[in-house]
Task: structure prediction
Amino acid sequence: MKFLKVDEKKLDVYEDYPTLYKKYYFTYYGKKIMTYTMVKKTLFTYPTKSYLNIVKRGYKDCNLDSKYLKIALKEVL
Result:
């Protein structure tokens, strides 16, 4: 799935970039990757079920291997 710059701008608004998150770009297996990192760290809270569903949908939409998500969820849930 290829994202357009307009999609990234919409995601920036959703993620409250640059107030809440910074963006980092890197190359992974020859593909350009962008990720958000929280600017101000907050106390840990468990993700809500609705947020986890959004993340799971993102994995599915982007054909990502969900085993890494499952590993991360075991550590926090």
Notes: Strands lie at 21-28, 31-38. The two ends are 29 Å apart (CA to CA). Residues 19 and 71 are 29 Å apart (CA to CA). The chain has two domains: 1-40, 43-77.
